Amino acid sequence: MENIKLGLKENWQQFTLLVLVNMMVGGMVGLERTVVPLVGTDEFKIGSDIVIFSFIIAFGVVKAFTNLVSGVLADRYTRKKVLILGWLIGMPVPFLLGWGPTWNWIIIANVLLGISQGLAWSMTVNMKIDLVGPKKRGLAMGLNEAAGYGAVGLTALLTGYLASTYGLRPEPFYIGIFYTIAGLLLSILVIRDTRPFAKLETKQVAVTASGETAHKPNLFWVFKETSFKNKNLFSVSQAGLINNLNDGMSWGVFPLLFIAAGVGLEGVGWIKAVYPVVWGVGQIVTGPLADRWGRKPLIVWGMFVQVLGHIVIGLEMFDPLTAGLVGSVLLGLGTAMVYPALLAAVSDAAHPSWRASSLGVYRFWRDMGYAIGALMAGVVGNFFGLMWAVHIAGIITLLSGIVVWVRMKETMNKNLTK
Question: What residue ranges define each of the domains in the chain, with the CATH number in brackets?
């Protein structure tokens, strides 16, 4: 490792392997997108939206707090060790989802899944950022998130097909057993640690584009800096939270909403698949655009495109299946615009000496959006109906986009990306 160099071209082999690993990581989340809410209503006969969405709340809260410490662990130990730990903790998940005898077992599975995702997905993000350096961050994050969320969508579609053919459990969860074994073996056998690349960049960067300097990775200090002291990092963190609020809302609401509207299980599978697939594949394009156009335009307009998705679904402009598909495409497209730009903006603003911790804080706020979105949807759904959860999510998304428009300054150093 003495002659290490930063860059995507210079490290394409390891980068490609990390993309493959993140497909397995994303696939584990895709296991739940179509089937688990229906397991709650059909198999366990749960009538409360809040109780059904409790698995998403548990996942989101646990993943958020795990993200928070993952950066500290990555800075203190090696990225590879944290990645392997994430896979080991996730090993029981498909078995609990497929054979758990009560709803509490589903909750336990989601606690473990949240820890696993917080460690494993965080490390694939950090490791790719370490490898590529500042010039291709948007592209790197686009490819990483494309692989992860593309796998979320394809797995959601496949589990919907398996559930309609064989039943809700256990067949759809066999896929998760493959993901955990393959992901763990790849992480142990072929992935190399990337912390030396971050140390190299630390020596090369005195001050970031946002004026941030080197600092000993103290979590409390980084938390304050990322959450509210730095205007750019605050803008990014709140936008990430609202973006995942939309995902958490749709995760729980869409299967129940569209089944009640007369859409079949396979149709719901397509609706649930389209959102993350467009989100994932779209980032192959939007990631490089974030390196060319800058981070802020994609974040602002991505939030506004998501608002259009809420409008299409919420106003019932088409029949339920068409509205669900068109709205999900718009939600996916808007999220594809936002996601790599947000991660790249954090990486721009935070100094390499505390970047992993800052990314952990950003991902803490972002993934709290899962829990907040599911909780909001459950409360609103119980009192006003599930469609109102869609309306409120759209209003909040519009306000978030305006905050970024007003408060955030461009973080990309254009001299480095030429």
Answer: 12-407 (1.20.1250.20)
